[in-house]
């Protein structure tokens, strides 16, 4: 199957470093023209610099590819719209949007302030909506396009000290599925990638306990470049019939993630009361509970 990206224009937000940079290089080598968007902030969203985006553009050009740098923020509608306009201005089209931009402001929930909450939601969730929405009219007009939305296991199973990030990434899962449903009749697809990779964002996760420290140490051997081939595939025509899915990449493994489905049901013909829920319904349902203290063990098995 053909996974070349010749004649496609790809917008990748947050592509000045890490996973985004690797996706930009991979897709450029596959023939795509790339809008390298990066605000140039720190892992906590502080400061601003055009250097990261421009450095990736230079790398792509040295490899014989085409790219342009963009430093607009995804976190506001006007500036996010300019990112898509940048693709149209330089290349006359947009075919793929990769919503990768983000930063972390980790703090345990009981200490998290409003700005830490709002800032992370703005860049991850709102940013994914704004960039996707800006591209939507063009995707509809050309009857085709691909959204690749970066989520996280933090959004699927939760994580210590990341209530803001987890909420944003869970929102992206629902956003992506809704986009897939709304855009399907226009031959536009929307999928999620949840990466396991050591990046500057992962380096800021709290490591206050031995278990957390061990988990982070294991992640250090998972390279960001391992994510790029799946992103390229999802951007290509070879993935034309794949939409509404959630994939996880961990080193050399690719997982297809389950989506919300009923696990078990109970029925009472006369209706339930609080007391009968306690005595009859909950004992039956409890058999399918996933213990909170095992939440982080979901991916704790040896790689294949």
Labels describing this entry:
14% strand, 9 helices, globular, 8 strands, 304 residues
Describe the structure.
The chain has helices at 18-29, 51-62, 77-91, 114-142, 153-157, 163-183, 210-219, 228-235, 274-285; strands at 9-12, 33-37, 66-70, 96-99, 145-150, 188-196, 246-250, 253-256. It has 304 residues and is an alpha/beta fold. The protein has an 8-stranded mixed sheet with strand order 3-2-1-4-5-6-7-8, sandwiched between helices. Helix 1 (18-29) packs across helix 8 (228-235), helix 3 (77-91) packs parallel to helix 4 (114-142) and helix 4 packs parallel to helix 6. The chain has 9 helices and 8 strands. 41% of the residues lie in helices and 14% in strands.
Secondary structure layout plus pairing:
Layout: E1 9-12, H1 18-29, E2 33-37, H2 51-62, E3 66-70, H3 77-91, E4 96-99, H4 114-142, E5 145-150, H5 153-157, H6 163-183, E6 188-196, H7 210-219, H8 228-235, E7 246-250, E8 253-256, H9 274-285
Parallel strand pairs: 1-2, 1-4, 2-3, 4-5, 5-6, 6-7
Antiparallel strand pairs: 7-8
Sheet of most strands: 8 strands, mixed
Give the strand order of the largest sheet, numbering strands 1, 2, ... along the chain.
3-2-1-4-5-6-7-8
- The helix/strand order is EHEHEHEHEHHEHHEEH
- Based on CA inertia axes, which overall geometry fits? globular
Oligomer: single chain
Mean pLDDT: 91
- How many E strands? 8
Distance between the termini: 25 Å
Percent in strands: 5-15%
Q: Which ranges are low-confidence, i.e. pLDDT below 50, for 5 or more consecutive residues?
A: none
User: How big is the Rg?
Assistant: 20 Å
- Structural class by sheet pairing and helices: alpha/beta
Number of helices: 9
Helicity, as a percent range: 40-55%
